[in-house]
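Translate sequence into structure tokens.
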Amino acid sequence: MGNHLLKRLEEKSQKYPVDREQRLVYTWDNTKDTLTILQSASIMNGNISSSTQAVKYAGSKLKLLPYILSMSQKVSENIDNITVFDGFSGSTRVSQLYAKSGYTVYANDSASYSRVFNTAFLLNSKPPEAYQGLIDHLNALKPVEGWFTEHYGGDAFNKASCNGDGLKKPWQRKNTAKLDAIREEIDRLNLDEVSRAVALTSLILALDRVDSTLGHFAAYLNDWSVRSYRDLLLEVPALWVNQRRNVVMHDDIFDALRQLPDNIIIAYFDPPYGSNNEKMPPSRIRYASYYHIWTTICLNDRPELFGKAGRRADTSDAIAGSVFEDFRKGASGRFIATEALEKLIKETRSDYIILSYSSGGRATTDELNEVLNMYGKIVEIKKIDYKKNIMATMKWTNDWAKDVAEKNYEYLFMMERI
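Result follows.
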């Protein structure tokens, strides 16, 4: 890639730093909520521009994408023969990155919204403009106040983000009325799987642009955010025509591992971390709690709700959560989350494993080192200074927050199976 192009991109975009070691340049487009990674020809055969798109997401690996990709490239000179597995796909940024970079991707997550995002991005075989008519049709629908407005819509004329019930809301009523109309129409249209996923992804991305939250739905802002006054407007997602036969899975991670083919070269894992803070209630760190509304929009099942945030009943402390988020110790005296990580590594049959983990997680780096070396050989570790999640600075978490001077690091471990 010519220096003149890189210079022009630097002049026109808000930039992350150039990674001199890996020779990657990555730029952030605020208007499209996309990260673009530009790679030199010395990294891969030919030039590639890969972008990802997602909702605001706690624990997002947006800033880690260049490191993940560069690690993967070191063991995948011929991408035509490389199949990767993203076991905890979440917002799907990593799965999108792999797919757009030419890898064949098996993407898995137990969350319904993740399956929808992955279906839209990884299984699409049409040019993006093929969906413009569908998106225009949904945008043209008249607002209808229904179930979503009843539970999640607030009055704009009140400075506080609540209505008559006194509870804070994530969206203004004008936008939940559009949500109600659009969500019912998506079901009525009887779309094929990918078109339905594209419509739902477009809807969720649009709602993410007009919410009044801190990026999750465990609590809402006291006053309306500036963006919440905007009108809900759907756009065609940043799709591309997939050339590979990607596979979208919607399973518990251990069930998914048993279904994978034998030709997985790289497995990337970004498990939910739980917390090593003894005072933090486990419900506060569960993704099912954070993004319950995205689940409800995907399923449109009008579930039983509870609590001030209107959470799904199936995200309660007694039901939701995974072993990776567990804060307790098991019968062996080890943390359940650490035992789950060991089981994960042991049962993964890929040639290489890339594991992303936070210094705020339950397992320590020493424990991770021990587990990885037990089943393979660590070939690379990256320690990245990562800004703490916004939850750590919220007033109502101050009693749980760790020493604010302690930095939050993200670790990337690459293990080779031996």
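Note: Residues 1-49, 279-285, 389-405 have pLDDT under 50 and may be disordered.
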